[in-house]
Design brief:
Blueprint (H helix, E strand, L loop, with lengths): L1 H8 L2 H33 L1 H22 L21 H10 L1 H31 L4 H31 L5 H21 L4 H15 L3 H10 L6 H35 L3 H33 L4
Helix pairs in contact: 2-3, 2-6, 2-9, 5-10, 5-11, 6-7, 6-8, 7-8, 7-9, 7-11, 10-11
Length: 304
């Protein structure tokens, strides 16, 4: 719903930037969660860490419900929207499935999330198993990398996409692909690190480059559907993103690590991360490029 509201407020040429600003909240939350959760977990245990990090969100949800007003549908594009019920689920699903650009885009996002969620879930264990760094110190490093690197990367992805996309809408997909591919060699070095401090600092760059996709891909998805379809279109995009990325990525790393533990010992986790991150990154970039082949025609046929 927040994605749809933002698209109602901001014009298409500003939408990726606005959605990126909104999506920065994800990385700011990770910053607070890692840093606060790391130190609370070190001194008071992981259960208390979950309580301290989780409860403020409930209070903020109540504040938003009481203070944020919903904008008029189609306001930014001067589109008159009827009071009829929005299109049913099946109609939106059929429309999106008929868009080849969306199909490839959704799989690209899911695979990119597979790489990022796998690293976010397992890098703490990877460093803790391989070094003598404390949970609090590691949480601070990873929190700063995710919060600053991820936040700035998300914002830059939106700004660059809106700027370059005025010349060619395919830049909305090229920029996430370029950033993700550029992050891969940095990630591979981190997993084969010889210097802990260097690996932790390089993690900033890896997350910065790998987080440039959210604003551009959400904005592109909204441009393919009608005004009354945007919230459901975002939901479908994130269903694929989370099913493939969050659902499969960390699980696959765990399975591979367990399978290789007899041969590689504690190093098996690093090898599992390397396999999943590399494979998911290359496949994601392939789907981004395939999506650009159909993007212009799908945007031209988008309903009002």
């Amino acid at each position: 719903p927040a994605h749809s509201m933002i698209s109602d407020i901001f014009k298409p040429e500003q939408r990726a930037t606005a959605l990126s600003l909104y999506s920065m909240g994800l990385y700011v939350g990770i910053l607070g969660g890692f840093m606060l959760g790391g130190w609370v977990g070190q001194y008071y245990g992981w259960r208390m860490a979950f309580m301290v990090v989780g409860l403020p969100g409930v209070l903020l949800a109540v504040l938003v419900m009481l203070t944020v007003k919903e904008p008029s549908r189609g306001w930014s594009e001067n589109i008159a929207v009827s009071d009829e019920p929005p299109p049913p689920f099946q109609e939106v699903l059929n429309l999106l499935w008929s868009r080849k650009a969306f199909r490839h885009l959704a799989f690209a996002c899911g695979l990119q999330a597979m790489a990022s969620y796998s690293l976010a879930s397992w890098l703490p264990s990877f460093f803790l198993r391989s070094t003598d760094i404390t949970i609090g110190e590691l949480g601070t490093w990873l929190g700063l990398a995710a919060g600053i690197g991820g936040g700035l990367g998300t914002l830059c992805g939106g700004l660059l996409s809106d700027r370059m996309g005025q010349k060619d809408p395919r830049w909305y997909l090229w920029i996430p692909a370029i950033g993700l591919l550029a992050a891969l060699p940095i990630t591979l070095y981190i997993l084969a690190f010889a210097d802990l401090m260097l690996a932790l600092m390089l993690n900033f760059a890896s997350i910065f480059l790998g987080s440039m996709y959210l604003g551009p891909v959400i904005a592109t998805t909204h441009s393919m559907v009608g005004v009354r379809m945007r919230a459901l279109a975002s939901a479908m995009l994130f269903f694929v993103l989370n099913l493939v990325g969050l659902g499969m990525g960390p699980t696959l790393v765990g399975i591979l690590s367990d399978a290789m533990a007899g041969t590689y010992g504690i190093a098996s986790l690093g090898y599992a991360l390397l396999i999943v991150a590399t494979g998911a990154t290359l496949l994601a970039c392939t789907h981004y490029l395939l999506a650009t082949r159909y993007l212009k025609s799908d945007l031209a046929n988008a309903p009002a």
